[in-house]
């Protein structure tokens, strides 16, 4: 059993008789130190997706599916093509399959692709990824005196997040893929 | 869905907040659905008894005001079976449902709803009315998220408070006398003498008392809750104030009054009678808004000062009702300072309250606007009913 707060996109759960792949995962802190989790789940038998919420401490039966190291090659239309690093077999995933991973996915990146039977059903990103900042508001002298310590930024993958004032365009930053937050400048 | 019975289950975590909200919810739900059986399960009836003296603190099962109160610490399988299941189960604030209830009653319910804590944060709307994948073998479980916008579950509009407000201002003096007479005081006739409620977590009040002394001709401050009382008593001693009695301190023209624990309706009335309110926790924040008087919120302290995130989110919401930009910035700045803990001791209290006390008219106007909007668009019990009616 695994607590909901320890899950992340790419994990698989068994709920009732069905297997679900977590494609999006959001953690929010509630009051009194209680927290909640929102997940987008894909039913691996039917392919349907559903959104579910739960307490962060709720327990789920997790299932470990086969994973293969694959390199992300390119996207074409709705499909994202990956290549197995051992046998060079190519497999396609859709935007829905990738969920949150799209925020961090760069061409040539090698990641774990989750397989259900012989079918690729999702990916599990590494906990940290390095991304280059392509846009960021300039820091203005005096910003911190108003209590402002973070500013908006955009990465090479198009992902928008908050970064500290000292981060500039062109910097490479480490991002936590579990919560999408800035960790440090790489 | 059709329903004729509802069980509300709550736990007492530390103070009175969780049980107080559950009780308020039960009372309002009962008013809207007089034919519906309403039961409140709580693992400690003492706080409920303090808030409503008609509730016995040591009774396993009792009915008061049309609500059945059950001491869930005494709930065993036999009692659970005797009580029988209800159509709707409300798990208040993610509390742990008693084992006997989970085993004997929960599987027969039609809907299981987690009523969460109130927050002004934007993510709340994304969780509201969402289904949890838990409980697939029993009733479907949903999250109901209180909040300050139409896209959330709203806040509890207490009809008793609305009745008190209707009595004001015609009977303010008379009602205020009820609170002041035990201290040998009369209601002030001069508008320059302020009445305030101080109900916060542990802190010092030096700067508050100095600001009160410099902005008005005198004040009556009602200090409620043990933590506020401790902090205020230290402040009075530190500032060389005097105590005319254990429950009555004085600094210059400011009378600092320590009333005994007030039942819920009395506390709500006091908030309505005051000129300003300093309140703590989520339920008192809502009561302060509906009291329509200027207020400052002391949020429950969380790890890594996470309460500041909650306070910022609330200030963002409240800002929409404050017309004066400078007043809005001052209020936000004071709110953040007021919620930044000064170590583990009460400290001296260094916040600048002069802007707050000088802006009571503008803040009062903003609070009335917020109250008006919330009462009409964010009534939690109405929203809860709508939600139940939409369930299959």
Q: Would you report the number of β strands of chain A?
A: 16
Strand content of chain A: over 45%
**Relative strand content of chain B:** 15-25%
- Helix proportion of residues of chain A, in percent? under 10%
How large is the radius of gyration of chain A?
18 Å
Count of discrete structural domains of chain B: 2
- The helix/strand series of chain A, from N terminus to C terminus, equals EEEEEEEEEHEEEEEEE
Shape of chain B: globular
Determine and state the CATH class of the largest domain in chain B.
Alpha Beta
How widely separated are the two ends of chain B?
5 Å
Helical segment tally of chain A? 1
- The level 1 CATH classification of the largest domain in chain A is Mainly Beta
Largest sheet of chain A: 6 strands, antiparallel
Short description:
The complex is a heterodimer of chains A (186) and B (392). Chain A is an all-beta fold and 186 residues long.
Give a quick set of tags describing it.
heterodimer, A: 186 residues, mainly beta, SH3 type barrels, OB fold (Dihydrolipoamide Acetyltransferase, E2P), 3 domains, five-stranded antiparallel sheet, flat, B: 392 residues, alpha/beta, Rossmann fold, 2 domains, eight-stranded mixed sheet, seven-stranded mixed sheet, 16 helices, 41% helix, globular
């Amino acid at each position: 059993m695994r607590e909901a707060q320890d899950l992340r996109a790419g994990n698989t759960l068994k709920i009732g008789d069905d297997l679900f792949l977590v494609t999006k995962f959001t953690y929010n802190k509630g009051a009194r130190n209680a927290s909640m989790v929102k997940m987008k789940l894909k039913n691996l038998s039917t392919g349907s997706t559903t959104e579910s919420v739960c307490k962060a401490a709720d327990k789920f039966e997790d299932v470990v599916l086969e994973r293969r190291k694959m390199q992300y090659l390119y996207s074409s239309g709705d499909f994202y093509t990956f290549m197995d690093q051992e046998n060079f077999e190519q497999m396609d995933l859709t935007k829905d399959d990738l969920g949150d991973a799209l925020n961090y996915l760069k061409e040539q990146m090698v990641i774990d692709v989750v397989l259900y039977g012989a079918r690729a059903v999702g990916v599990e990103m590494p906990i940290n990824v390095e991304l280059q900042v392509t846009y960021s508001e300039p820091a203005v002298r005096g910003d911190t005196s108003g209590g402002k310590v973070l500013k908006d930024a955009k990465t090479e993958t198009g992902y928008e997040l908050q970064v500290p004032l000292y981060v500039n365009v062109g910097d490479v930053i480490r991002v936590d893929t579990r919560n999408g937050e800035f960790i440090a400048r790489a | 869905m059709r329903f004729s019975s509802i069980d509300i289950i709550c736990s007492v975590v530390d103070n009175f907040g969780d049980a107080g909200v559950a009780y308020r919810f039960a009372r309002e739900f009962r008013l809207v659905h007089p034919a519906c059986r309403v039961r409140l399960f709580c693992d400690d009836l003492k706080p409920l008894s303090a808030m409503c003296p008609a509730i016995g603190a040591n009774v396993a099962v009792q009915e008061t005001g049309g609500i059945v109160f059950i001491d869930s610490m005494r709930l065993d399988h036999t009692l659970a079976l005797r009580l029988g299941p209800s159509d709707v189960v409300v798990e208040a604030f993610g509390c742990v449902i008693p084992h006997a209830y989970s085993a004997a009653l929960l599987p027969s319910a039609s809907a299981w709803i987690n009523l969460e804590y109130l927050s002004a944060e934007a993510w709340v709307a994304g969780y509201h009315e969402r289904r949890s994948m838990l409980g697939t073998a029993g009733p479907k479980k949903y999250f109901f998220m209180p909040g300050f916008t139409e896209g959330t579950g709203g806040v509890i509009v207490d009809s008793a408070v609305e009745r008190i407000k209707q009595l004001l201002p015609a009977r303010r003096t008379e009602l205020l006398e009820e609170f002041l007479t035990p201290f040998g005081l009369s209601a002030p006739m001069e508008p320059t003498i302020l009445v305030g409620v101080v109900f916060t977590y542990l802190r010092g009040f030096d700067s508050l008392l100095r600001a009160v002394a410099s902005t008005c001709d005198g004040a009556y401050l009602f200090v409620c809750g043990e933590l506020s009382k401790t902090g205020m008593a230290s402040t009075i001693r530190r500032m060389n104030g005097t105590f005319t009695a254990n429950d009555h301190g004085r600094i210059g023209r400011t009378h600092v009054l320590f009333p005994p624990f007030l039942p819920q309706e009395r506390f709500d009335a006091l908030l309505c009678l005051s000129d300003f309110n300093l309140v703590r926790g989520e339920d008192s924040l809502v009561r302060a808004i509906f009291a329509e008087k200027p207020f400052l919120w002391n949020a429950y302290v969380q790890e890594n000062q996470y309460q500041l995130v909650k306070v910022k989110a609330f200030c963002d919401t409240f800002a929409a009702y404050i017309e004066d930009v400078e007043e809005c910035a001052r209020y936000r700045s004071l709110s953040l300072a007021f919620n930044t803990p000064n170590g583990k001791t009460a400290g001296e209290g260094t916040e600048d309250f002069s802007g707050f006390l000088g802006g009571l008219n503008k803040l009062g106007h903003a609070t009335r606007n917020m109250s008006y909007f919330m009462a009409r668009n964010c009534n939690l019990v109405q929203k809860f009913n709508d939600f139940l009616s939409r369930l299959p």
